[in-house]
Amino acid sequence: MMKLALLPALAALISAVPALAEEIGECRFDRDTLTFAGTPVEQAGCLLRKVKLLGEKEVQPLPPVIRKLLESETAPTAAMKEAALAAFPQPYQDYARQYADAPISQTEAGLPARYFVIHDTSDPFYKDAPFPKRLDTDLRVNSFTSYMDGTFAKSPVAHIFLNRVGQIWAGHEFQEGWRATKLESRVIGPAARGRFVHIETVQPRRFLPGATNRGFTQGPKPGFSKAQYRMLAALYVYTSARAGQWLIPGFHATVDAGIPDAHDDPQNFELKQFARELEKLVKD
Q1: Model pTM score
Q2: Which of 20, 68, 188, 275 has its CA 20 to 30 A from that of 237?
């Protein structure tokens, strides 16, 4: 009888212990805090793993400049922000200046944007045909039309589209919470919208030899142009300045890693090149 009397008290004690938060994917995204596991540097280390063919991921060193910025617990200075704005091409530069002092997105619960996600468009798709010889100036490769007119998707799939010439087209202003990963759209849902900003970098794809399924494709080498790395760095500084803190950069494939049918982009991304362009903008 005494043992039975203890059962209600034991049940009350167990229910009082907080449940462990659910963590999603390889970088352990917390459904409640909408944050990946670890310090900003540790998060970036997981989210900036190199994306290889078929979505395989490989740990790579975090460039010192990214580590330094994420450890600083500061925001870009006014000079850094201006350097980023000055780097933008027209007409996007004038567009960006209109919103330069506005905050960027936040979630419905009021959490500010925290992650800067780099994608590749995997488009145009050449099937078995070779890539054009001059990718960085090819008119079909670098056209924004399919992303603007609903051919690629009903609505622009990202905040920014960046072609190999270095031109920028805004699909959504950064104040608008948007979703462009399976983590946001299929796992967390609307609560995650506003926590990520999304940059689509133009990169065509073709089938791997012998393949007929769009899940087995390859991008060109080099994967991106110098102009794309330069503009990505400027966009990172600009969005971080508006966020009031250095955003944590990551890749589409690593954000979704561990979720079924995750994407495999960006392919052939050279983190060192991105870091070199970033260093030019944040130097003292």
Answers
A1: 0.91
A2: 188
